[in-house]
Amino acid sequence: MKPVIVAIHCAAALxxxxxxxxxxxxxxxxAAHNKWRAKAGIMEKLGYSPALAAAAQAWADNLKRTNxxxxxxxxxxxxxxxxxxxxxxxxxSDGRKELQKVSPEQVVDSxxxxxxxxxxxxxxxxxxxMCGHYTQVVWRTTTTVGxxxxxxxxxxxxxxxxxxxxxxxxxxxxxx
Length: 176
Description:
Blueprint (H helix, E strand, L loop, with lengths): L1 H18 L6 H14 L7 E2 L1 H18 L13 E7 L2 E2 L5 E2 L5 H9 L5 E2 L4 E2 L6 H6 L6 E8 L6 E8 L11
Parallel strand pairs: 1-7
Antiparallel strand pairs: 2-8, 3-4, 5-6, 7-8
């Protein structure tokens, strides 16, 4: 009996570890952001900020703890910009849920894809569409980014956060 109990505890520990094993690839996040910036003609590249990453992690953890991994923006009051991304679990017909593999490129490309709904001439989004994530990614005067992820263990949902300084998306100003 004891070996079975040990095996069950070890299996539970491995599941717990895998839930928390989502690592942030800072270089991949910076590269993905800089790809979109280059497409917009912005040669000023973003750098990575451990301080912003820590703040983004604190916010993602807060969303996990208080909002069950549902997205809600923090209240930066112009101190930093923020983009959020949510990923569901992979759900199987037998009821199992697995952590979806999400890359920094997927996260940033989801925001960058909003370019299709942004009109530079009018500096507006297509009515009924979002484009503010895209404009934050390409905001010319933004110089640093920090990103994080939190995973809700029971649902295997993920919430990703990137924070930016200086903040972008100032009303009446164009991103570049």
